[in-house]
What does this fold into?
Amino acid sequence: MSVLKVGHLTIGWTVLALFAASGVYLRVRAPAVYLGDEVSHMMFIANHIYLLMAGIANVAIGRYVVPVIDKRGKLMQSVALAAMTASSLLLAYAFMLEPMLGSLERPRTQIGVILLAVGTLLHALSNLPGRQNRK
It folds into this structure.
């Protein structure tokens, strides 16, 4: 297996485990935190789902990615892995921090979702520069 596949699968399964742990946290501990505050409750739930999205995206790409030989394609895949890894870390951080701030502003979540979208798009486009040069 390539480093690309291992990287995405490792990040993806780790984030999915974090998603499960955050679900337990939401069920057991979080009600005391957001008791009566529906905005915080909604933000916890939304960020919980964003963790699921990041985990599934990484596992799916890790399962099906085909490393390319073309330099531009390789660079795009490397940047995509970095963006999706940063996105996963940022979304996990946002889950823990942003609902506690009591504001509807969620800059960390927004950047995390954008990074995930950019990484996914880069993977989709990385195959175009060297379509014939696949390993």
In short: The radius of gyration is 17 Å. The helical segments are 3-28, 30-34, 38-64, 71-101, 107-126.
